[in-house]
Design a protein that fits this description.
homodimer; alpha/beta; Rossmann fold; 3 domains; 7-stranded parallel beta sheet; 14 helices; 54% helix
Chain lengths: 320, 320
Amino acid sequence: MTRARPLPPAARAIVSGDRRALARVISQVENREPSAASVARALYPRTGKKPVIGVTGPLGVGKSSVINRLVARLRDLDRTVGVVAVDPSSPYSGGSVLGDRIRFERRVDDAGVFFRSMASRGEVGGIAAATREVTRLLDAAGFDVILVETVGSGQVDLAVRDVATTSVVVLVPHLGDEVQTLKAGLFEIADVFCVNKADLPGADVARRDLAELVGLGGARSGWRPRIVATSTTQPSGIEELWSAIEAHEEFLDRTGARRADERRRVSAEIVELVRERVGRELTRRLEREPELRRWVDRAVERTLDPHTVADRLARALGSR
Amino acid sequence: MTRARPLPPAARAIVSGDRRALARVISQVENREPSAASVARALYPRTGKKPVIGVTGPLGVGKSSVINRLVARLRDLDRTVGVVAVDPSSPYSGGSVLGDRIRFERRVDDAGVFFRSMASRGEVGGIAAATREVTRLLDAAGFDVILVETVGSGQVDLAVRDVATTSVVVLVPHLGDEVQTLKAGLFEIADVFCVNKADLPGADVARRDLAELVGLGGARSGWRPRIVATSTTQPSGIEELWSAIEAHEEFLDRTGARRADERRRVSAEIVELVRERVGRELTRRLEREPELRRWVDRAVERTLDPHTVADRLARALGSR
């Protein structure tokens, strides 16, 4: 059982529905400010019960339109929604244009929707960690459903499974050669395939190809990925998309997979956090301690290779 | 001093110029086969003397054309060249099309050029490590100059400084808003700016803007980034580009920066390798050891947050 401890003021504000406090702490998470850590720790016991729906796929398939329609559908069902969009597009883009676009389409005064796009400078691990913290803040803030959009890079997309309870992969007709590589990557991620732009020619073929591939792949731990065709211009298929997502969420509860998945995610998170701490500490010591500096010197001078040095340091650090 | 140990057969073949052996071991590195590690270790003492030129920049600026021209220039100067192109474009693309294109333009029978494109599935850290190993194989294989091309995602681009002795950032005229974000990211990377497609209107303005920004930034550790305008269609500026690269390489030797940079790179590599080992070991133990499993359970049950668990585990692992 969780012992109730008094919440820090910012955490209390978030729980009570203060959206400005929520936005402020999200910014602190984004900027890796230490103040965010204590809020996140305090709110952690209140998290982990909400569906977190990851929406991923190649650039240009209309992920943000799909999300926009999903949000509208969820509002029709009287569910509140928190959305976080991660833009991994590097130092070059710097953009949160996407976020502004979605916000533009939503009613600004709808308190049942909260949208936030995050820049994603820095290393991928850091982005995944920050995204996870933001989904938890949205969870603690009381939103019924949390949507996470990741854009573009395969690296970040793969991390979606470390955050989401259900992962939706959005594709378009005419996948061409991509289907081949999809097998390797996205089939490990997708709980639901969304064939978007289903009004384009070739949608039926794409759907059939996918169905065949899903059939070949077999059911991952008892769940066979669903395939839904959508169009965001018509719009059509959005209800079916949400039903497929809900079916997966029900599957998680029915089979006990929810707890197993959560365990896998938390375990991976803990490993990553330990790696981070060990790396930070070792970097510091390699700079300061003469004895450790000499190990680096040996690698620089080519008398020992980095793998051998790493083996010895890892052992010296007590990691058997 | 390095004690001479007998080389494993594959390593001996690479050193003696056997290109098929080289290609084979590169594939092993790419697939993380353990056999590659012993070859890499054995060859490590023979590495670290060659210029490794990183070429990076946004998609569509013509990086591969610039590299193609640079290779031709280096061949005119009778220097042999090993090229490795990293394609970070995710599970979706799976492509080494780029590699084929460049290879097409080069004479197939020129033993003085070796080209290899690498898929980049998996996590960014792993790609950076594999790229580093491949540059070392090319180094040990005796190429005079090693070129590393990274495509697209900012995440991987940033890692170029962990591999290259000189980093070239390729841009095009009309950078627009990108210049703002460039300041944050690419100015930390670039030793040389290459304004490509200099035959397009706006090239002079782009060059002047860059010069101004470089002026504002000041010289990083005594080196002020050079700016070169190139066109690969004319072609023009390629000789100047190589001269700028050589000037930086000479600067590294003259000032002792080469050793300091190498120390920074090797140190970062060792930290990453230790992180990897610690992570692997901890993952294993979190699955197997009941006492450690209970720590994960507490986080899953929300009685302890992952940061607190990580703090305790990191301490228990001996990382003070």
